[in-house]
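For the sake of transparency, this paper describes our internal protein records without simplification. The remainder of this section carries one protein's record, kept here as part of the documentation:
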Amino acid sequence: MGALEEVAGCSLADLYALGIDSKTAKQLDRYAEVYFRSKAAPRKQELARAAAIATGHTLATLGDIERFVGRVPTKHRWDMRVELCQVWPNTRALEDRAAELEQEYGVATKEAPQPRVSHRAVPDSDLTDLTLRAPSHLVKAALDGAEGVEGMHAAEAILRAATSSDGLDGPEIVPALIIPVGDTVESWRRISGGEVQLSLTNGTVINGKDLVRQRLSRHGLALLIDEYSGDPIEIYKTDEGKRHLNPKESQIQALLTPVCAGINCSVGADDCQNHHIEAYKHGGPTTLGNSTKLCGFHNGRNDDDRDKPMYGHVEKLGGLDYWVPAFGGRPRLNQHRAAKGGALRAVRAMKEALATL
């Protein structure tokens, strides 16, 4: 307590100048504010100081006292501080007495946690840490949905879903394609609807929208070029297919395949991944005709490369998803009760039943 009295007239800068480390300096400044500088309750402050000196409290036990005092409503804090300063300077003894006083004074009402979000760039990478606090049911739903996305980390899947208007394509990026009208256009004028009409040298006219469509239809490839060095960056197909089923397509696939297509698997479609029967990396399209539902286990074991069989793979035969053994054998349907309730199987079973009437 004597040390606190000495530093009560010092600022943090003064304490740093004396060579005191940051953590200790902040402790001394805080306790000096409470026991010497504060004018909120001078009489109780004096009683607390005297009791702390008499019992021999240290900076460590004063820290315990302040921690316990912070638990009760503000109006009772000086009373509790005086009581605890009279307790033998031992953490266990202080805990016991603080528990008794909490019963008497009550516990301070804590502010309810609020949703929040923050982000921080990860050094030396193109990644960013995202921290958020949100309703637990939404967090759980987002994680469950993201973990079921094939071939994508859950963190990326969550952000793609949040920034996509449809599916998991991420935020829409709209490039500007510059199309010179060229020598074939003699003149142009604006017409209704915000459109333009171009007069061509062959005596015909064409709307701007139709000209753009005509020019684009000539090309099936798009080349990215570094405008400064002139180096080609990458070439793409302008009609390249999408990577993921959209939510509507995924829901349809769940009706067709209510559980994983793996033999005797019971994992429900909601907990499965949308699987490309012909792997996307091998050119397989993202369509319902090339998709099924597989759990994480069977999706991981599926032989995407048919030339290197190990466990078997899924094939769509007659509209149904069959598991084909790796080294020959009869393709098999999942005979789980829920699997038999898939939309197509149920319709066919109903048709067969009606045919027997």
